[in-house]
Amino acid sequence: MAAFMRLGQAIADSDMSIRDVFEAMDTNDDGKIDGPELQKGIEEIGGENLSPQDVYNILKTIDEDDDGRLDPMELVNALEDLDLDIASDTEPATEAKPEKEFPTNLQKSLMSKKWDSAIWPLIHAAFGVIAVIWLVNGIIGPVDGAGGHVAFDGAVDTWSVEQGAEIAPGEKYPCDKAIQDSKCANSLTPLSGDASSMPVGFYWDGILFTLIGLLGLGGSLFMQYSVVKSWRAKARALKGDDEDSDEDSDEDSDDDDDDGDGGDADDSEDSEDDDSEEDVADDDEDEEEVDDDTDDDEGEDGDDDDEGEGDIDIGSRIGIEVDGVDVFGKIIEFDDEAGTVIIEDEDTGEEIEAPQDEMFVE
């Protein structure tokens, strides 16, 4: 079996699957591998030209049903016994499946402003209407069942003009709205009963449709206000991580610049040690004057900075509240006359218009 072990190693090195190996050896496509096919396959894949006796010994060892040929499962079992990390299907054993991207296109659509303000409410309303219709159907009975056989629901014997007979309580007769307390009301029964309607009440099909409406309404509400909301939070967190990474990179570059300035300062201090006492005194006086000028400049600049800190212009990143949902993006247009602002939603790319009073900086 040493030759078969070398064959298995060659298969593992080539990233072939067991299915690939079987199809390559089964040259006549009969679903079996005989001795000559096995010998040729070992030569082509493993590079060894074995004698017929060696091939027979291998075949005899792994041929479980002793029919002189190998079926796919016998080859699978034999190669898996070698424990060489050989895939049984068409995929390489070491290939990792790529992670799904978040958010997917579907998730982006479900998180969009269009879905939040229009489509989700329509879905909620549709399921709510379904539930209400079947509740009304069971309670009121919208179908006229006059003429259909029902049990008389009156309290005493009553003469039916249409039937021309006296009807006793509980007696089944062709329903007459003039004497029937329920006015011959019927509920729709598309799935239960022999007819499309039956005397007013809840039947299993009406109960089923009511449950579908209520469960659908609950599911759509949960999807919008729990699942989709958590997706938005995750998307914002990922966006924040990306921004933090960019800020860290900028801080690292600033640190490098500071180190360079520090080196120059040390060189300057070494040269100043060689100055005379008079030069030092003059320098001190000059420094006092420079400090005074600097303080004045800083005061003026500080005022300018304070004035500019609150500036928000096109391209600034802001947040706005739309229907109870915080939306973030860059400003693309101002309309001071109308008092509105238009931003591009950073999650969906949609353009959203909102009052300027609702803007805020995160």
Q: In words, what does this structure look like?
A:
By secondary structure, the protein is α+β, with helices and mostly antiparallel strands. Helices cover 52% and strands 14% of the residues. The chain has nine helices and twelve strands. The strands form four sheets. A five-stranded antiparallel beta sheet has the order 11-10-9-8-12, with no helix packed on it. Strands 1-6-7 form a three-stranded antiparallel beta sheet, with helices on one face. It has a two-stranded antiparallel ribbon with strand order 2-5. A hairpin with an 8-residue loop joins strand 6 and strand 7 (197-199). Helix 3 packs across helix 4 (52-62) and helix 7 (113-139) runs antiparallel to helix 8 (204-272). It is flat and about 105 Å long. 14% of the residues are buried.
Keywords summarizing the entry:
flat; alpha+beta; about 350 residues; 5-stranded antiparallel beta sheet
Q: Tell me how many strands there are.
A: 12
Strand order of the largest sheet: 11-10-9-8-12
- Tell me about the biggest sheet? 5 strands, antiparallel
Helix fraction, binned, reads 40-55%
Mean pLDDT: 76
Fold topology:
Elements: H1 2-13, H2 18-25, H3 35-46, H4 52-62, H5 72-81, H6 105-111, H7 113-139, E1 143-144, E2 149-151, E3 158-160, E4 165-167, E5 172-174, E6 185-188, E7 197-199, H8 204-272, H9 277-308, E8 317-322, E9 325-335, E10 340-345, E11 351-355, E12 359-360
Antiparallel strand pairs: 1-6, 2-5, 3-4, 6-7, 8-9, 8-12, 9-10, 10-11
Quick structural summary:
The protein is α+β, with helices and mostly antiparallel strands and 362 residues long.
